[in-house]
Structure formats: structure tokens, C-alpha cells
User: Fold this.
Amino acid sequence: MKIKKIILIPILVILTIIISSFLIMLYNLSPVSTKDTKTITFEVKEGWSKYNTVEHLKSEGLIRSAFFGKLLIKLTNRELFAGTYKLSKDMSTNEILEKISNQSNIENESITLTFIEGKRLSNYIKTISENFPYTIDEINELLNDKEFLDSLIEKYWFITDSIYNESIYNPLEGYFYPDTYEFKKNSTLEEIVYRFLDNLDNKLSDYKEDIELGTYSVHEYLTLASIIELEGGLSEDRKDIAGVFYNRLNSGMKLGSDVTTYYAVNKDFSAYLTKSDLNSCNGYNTRGDCVKGLPVGPICNMSLSSIAASIEPNKNDYYYFVADKNKKTYFSKNYSEHEETIATLKSEGKWYEY
Assistant:
């Protein structure tokens, strides 16, 4: 009997230790609270190890024990993925680790951004850089990458080799359709670009046949549309403005558009154009003597009304136009009428001053 007791006592001690340890482990792996169902956003950051992640779960009060959390990871050999997850304190450690070991549970938070028509691509790039973890240099590098641009030409019918003209400042200027977009916060740069181009594809689809049968290429229509966008303060005037530009193009006159000069010399519209600016020789300045027809490419990202105006202009016999400070446009058949209109606007206090 004594021998049996001697053998039994250690066994009971061992069993007690095992059962106690098991109960302690169960407790430490159980939910922090069975009543707190509030959703908590938890981010597993890039570069964190599995054990770092467990430490952060403990510091956020989502699990009872970092030690037992690490032990569970070791026993289950789980892989944890970086990303944002929706967790709660009524989840057990096992449920939490199971959730963040499945990439399908990653919460892709979104961000809504509005891109205004008439703005240059550089403005859009700045907005993207301010809202995503990409520098302006990184974005510009992608937008000028030959391999990436080749893939876009293959993917989109409206992007052609015209964007490779050596005089063009930004190959995709005019191709980012202005609109309000909802992006995933973890969007890649390529995905962001595709969103702009997919939208333009959708907007251009109704005009595809007209473009293909038209006098100009799609790149030229977008170029003209970008000028119309900046010259036409009111959308209802844009088809008449387009008519003026067509009359000038057909008669061999220069377009003579100041907005092309601003882009050519990279000046903001609040600045004055100098005589040197107006006479500058490059692929964009239609006030100088180097560009006889359309500029080499778009000068901004334009609205659908400007695109429609470039493809379907109003036929008229006007060759000049000017807008007052209220954005109303006045049209003239010849230069003398144009000068009279300007004089009248100045005398009536309607002349636009920078």
C-alpha cells in the first residue's frame, strides 16, 4: 500500500499540474470580455513579426496574454498577414489569430477624392501623393515609364503612340478624367491610374465611332478639348468656342490661345504673360510662330462637355471670342468687332482683371 501511495502521489501532482496549466491556458486564451462587442480597428503593419503582432494585440487589450498568444502561434504554425482588421474583445485569442491569418479578412478602407476639371496632371499627382504613400517622384517615374505606357497603349483604344512625341511634357496629360473617385487606401499606383483611364474609356465610348470617322485623331480631339475647357468658362459656350477654333484651323490661322502659352511656360493663370512668354517656341504655345495648328498634346484634364464640343462643334462664322469677369463669352466675326467688344466690356466694368 505504501508503494502504491508513493507512486500515486506524483501522478496526482502531475495530473493536477497538467489540468491547472490547461485551465490557465484556456483562461488566458479566452475573450477579454464576453460583453464588449464593440468593433476595434487593428492594423498589422508591414515588417511586424508574428510575435510583434501578438505583443500589439496585448497592448491594445484584445487578448489576455502575450505569452499564451505566442505559444498558440507556435503550436498552430500560423502565418499572420499585414493589413487592417475588424476585431473585438469578445473574440478569443484563437479567433483573433485565425482572422488575421486569412488575407480575405483584411479590411480595405477607402478614401474619396475629387479631381477638378481644368487642372493639370501635376495637380492630380500632388493630390495622389498627399493621400497615398507615394512620392511625387515615384508617381512621375511610373507615368513616364516606357514599359508601363506601352501596356496602356495595348490596354486602351484611345491611347496611342502620339503620347511619345518628344515635345510633350507629360505623356498622360489630358487622359485622367476629372471626377470623384473612391479608392482603396492600399491601392497600387497602377490601380489608381487604371481608375482614371477606365472612367475616360467609359466617357469616350459614346463618341468612339465619331472619333474614328472624324478629321482628327483621338489625341488631337483631347488636345482641343483641353483648350476649350480652359477657354470656356460656361459649358453652354464651349461648342461655339470649338466652332471658332475649327474656323481658325480650317483657314490656316493660328489658334492664338493664351491658355496654351500658360502651359507652355508653366505659369499659373494668376501670373501675367510676358512678351517673351508669348513668343516662346515649343510644342504648346499657339501664340508664337512655332505652332501653326493644334498643340502637341492636351494642357489639362477636361470635362465631358469640352470633349463633346471638340468632337461636335457648333458651326458658326466667328473667328474671335472673349469672356467677361462673369465668364460669359462674346463672339466676333472679325478683329475689329473683337476690339469693340473688349472696349465695351472695359467701359462697363466687366473686363476680367487678374
